[in-house]
Amino acid sequence: MAALARKRSASQPAWQGQWPIWLSGIWFAVAVLMIVGLLGLILASGLKTFWPTPLWRVTLKEGATYLGQAHREEVIPHQFDAAGAPKRRTLYRVGNKDLSGADFVWVDDDAVTARTRPAEAMAVERLEWGLFYGFVQQLQIDGQVVVGTPEVLWQTLRHEMPPAQRRLRAMRRIEKRVIGDINAQMEKARLAIRRLELEGLTVAETRVRTRHEAAIQALQERYAKIAEEIEQRRQQDQAFRVVLASVGERTKELPISSLVRVHRPNRLSWLGKAGVYADRLREFVFGQPREANSEGGVAPAIFGTVLMTLLMSLAVVPLGVLAALYLHEYAKQGFLVSVVRIAVNNLAGVPSTVFGVFGLGFFCYLIGGTIDLWFFPERLPTPTFGGGAILWASLTLALLTVPVVIVATEEALAAVPRGAREGSLACGATKFQTIWNVVLPAAVPGILTGTILAMARGAGEVAPLMITGVVKLAPELPLDHLAPFIHLERKFMHLGFHIYDVGFQAPSVEASKAMVYMTTILLLAIIICLNLGAMRIRGRLRAQFRGAEV
User: Do 88 and 184 share a domain, yes or no?
Assistant: First the structure.
């Protein structure tokens, strides 16, 4: 019988009996291919966003003329030409939506009578109303009209743009720093008067109020002088203007300072296109958003994402490590501890929106409202900490990710050899000294593993943030030159919410697709960089504690 069994087993294929392993491997390979394919689609669609493409002048049979960039092509459903081939159409981005009302237009290929690439056609990026495609019709430099050929007008415009942009930055700097400081001082004095009124004025406090009122009056006079200076600068800037003409002979007159970038795509060499691409990429990473976040940069969102992730990590690691230490080292194992562990594991499956609602009620309204009532009564009913803030959003995500840190830390503590504990205790160390000097250092690589997982999940969460502090546009960053310099009570921007907002709330879906892809790439890059930094630290610590296999 044994020989017959061996004969049957020898006749069976080697893979038979191992099909679960092969099936798992196949599904793992499929999952990896899907992830790689998704990342490839995002990269392919995003990295080409800022590359200049030619401007086409398209004339239709009915006489209409468009100037724009070919955005994409598609087959017209259920329509065929005389030869039986399916008809096609092209989506052109024609810009000039302040003149025509439409940023994109579909054109049937068989309706086109002429399609050319004008050498003088310009792509103009503006602070408002997005792209303008057309030609320079007239220039006014310091109130004087410039006369010359289109090439002369083009060169003059290119020469005048840098000083015009410097004038605009100077005005904005005065508005943000000087006027911003004056407003902050006036608000501080006003709140001081309000606090005195709430506490009940005495004779001495009445004199203090008089000094505050005098300070406010002086600040108002200074404000009026600076506002007059800004108005004079603005009037000077208005003397430098450009008149742009579209293919439909409609014109648009603008200050030169309102132009962000101009180029002639049909004349650009490969090196010139690379320069435009690099400049657009620089603006995307370091610039401010404009046009409902569908153009410009995402610098505030980058800052908010990184700061929120770091604050979340600073909150979740101590909380998770202390909870794991108590459960593993101090708590008496029994029914109650088992229930707590089950609850911790179940927290990982709670929808993130529930955490957001909890954060809104507990952190924003209860804790933040109490802080306002005790420390900022003069600001009420305007909340200071009693509304959405980057601090409360970070703590909410810390609660969301704390189960990951607890589980990873417990596994790391369990992996520390029992002999290390016993040796420390045998040498006369207390239990706390053993945990602090022997167990925790050996478990640090495992703790960092939990931190990496928590950062990866928390950085990409959006739903809790929409309730606890994230906004579409935050003109003031949580970090500035005003004391206390870091303002954790302010609202903030986040790359994940930026993707949602631009992808689903932007006025033009086609125009915002590129920004969605690029923001996704940037969010992935930030998460990878944060994780690589934590992994590098973990690797160094793991090399120091070879005895702990985590």
Answer: no
Model pLDDT, residue 549: 43
Place of tokens 């003109």: 475
Tell the residue number behind the tokens 């003031």, with chain if given.
476
Tracing tokens 């980058």 back to the chain, one arrives at 302
User: In this structure, are 158 and 189 located in the same domain?
Assistant: yes
**What phi and psi values does residue 278 have, to the nearest 5 degrees?**
-65, -40
Range of the domain at 225: 144-238
Same domain, 437 and 308: yes
In this structure, are strands 259-263 and 112-116 parallel, antiparallel, or unpaired?
unpaired
Q: Is the pLDDT assigned to residue 305 strictly greater than 60?
A: yes
Count of domains observed in the chain: 3
Element of type H or E holding 263 = strand 259-263
Calculate the CA 543 to chain-centre distance.
35
The secondary structure element, H or E, covering residue 369 is helix 369-375
Q: Which of 186, 179, 181, 178 has its CA nearest to residue 212?
A: 186
280 & 310 share domain: no
392 contacts 490 by C-beta, under 8 angstroms = no
Q: CATH number of the domain at 60, please.
A: 2.30.30
- Model pLDDT, residue 162: 93
Is the preceding peptide bond at 484 cis, omega within 30 degrees of 0? Answer: yes
Strand, helix or coil at 391? helix
Q: How confident is the model at residue 29 (pLDDT cuts 50, 70, 90)?
A: very high
Burial code of 73-85, b = ≥16 C-beta within 10 A, e = fewer?
eeeeeeeeeeeee
Tokens 């044994």 belong to residue: 2
Q: By CB neighbour count within 10 A (0-12 exposed, 13-18 middle, 19+ buried), where does 221 fall?
A: exposed
Q: Is the confidence at residue 204, as pLDDT, over 70?
A: no
Residue 447's pLDDT is: 87
How far apart CA 90 and CA 81 sit, in angstroms, is: 16
Looking at the fold, whether 455 and 320 belong to one and the same domain comes out as yes
